[in-house]
Automatic annotation (TrEMBL):
Cross-referenced SUPFAM superfamilies: Hedgehog/DD-peptidase (SSF55166)
Domain D-alanyl-D-alanine carboxypeptidase-like core: 24-179
Regions crossing the membrane: none
Alphabetical list of PANTHER family matching this protein: D-ALANYL-D-ALANINE CARBOXYPEPTIDASE (PTHR34385), PEPTIDOGLYCAN L-ALANYL-D-GLUTAMATE ENDOPEPTIDASE CWLK (PTHR34385:SF1)
Pfam family, one: VanY
Domain of life of the source: Bacteria
Protein name: M15 family metallopeptidase
Amino acid sequence: MKFSAQQWMGVSDSHIVKMQHNHGLISKVKDAFEAMQAAAAKDGIDLQLVSSFRSFERQLAIWQSKWLGQKPILDIHGQALDIDELEDIQKIHGIMTWSALPGASRHHWGTDLDVYDKQRVDSCDTPFELVSQEYELGGPCYDLSCWLDEHAQRFEFYRPYHRYNGGVAPEAWHLSYRPIATDIIKQLDINALKMQIASIDIGGKAMILQYLDSLFERYTLNGLEK
């Protein structure tokens, strides 16, 4: 499939099919997810979306809220950092460990989604935070995580952030539809991304543009795919 820069950067959602609860995916990805969801239900897993397509504007709002200290910047262990003690490049790395640069998020593509076991989460007394512990032994989404280990590949989904490679923190909840995501990765154009970042108001802009090549390699590609 051919995608425009406006599409893979999340500026346009013309490639997205709308779903319930403000979710959206590429049509073929939606079909694959719903087939996987039905199979999970037969095994007692309530597989539901936490997040799917995310626009450039929404990703920018997330970035700005962290840059301005309205939301915490976390280290690789999930501990809050003191942003007053961080240089700009350290803040950028801190944000990108958990939240993508606007225009460089896989959630723009319509191939990637975050999932949870809604029924088990709803039965818990504690708030759901979308953290690793919830997908580990003893967590409400542990059975879901095990089920995905066994069955996600059958529906052509995989976990791009299943392990830490020095870039994005591990995200057991993040799935990607391999056939189309692989095509999109081949179409990414860092020059188009540079032009987009240069055209907006974003915290750390000068430093982002200075180091964009290495940031793109470390976090967007994440050491997994070229």
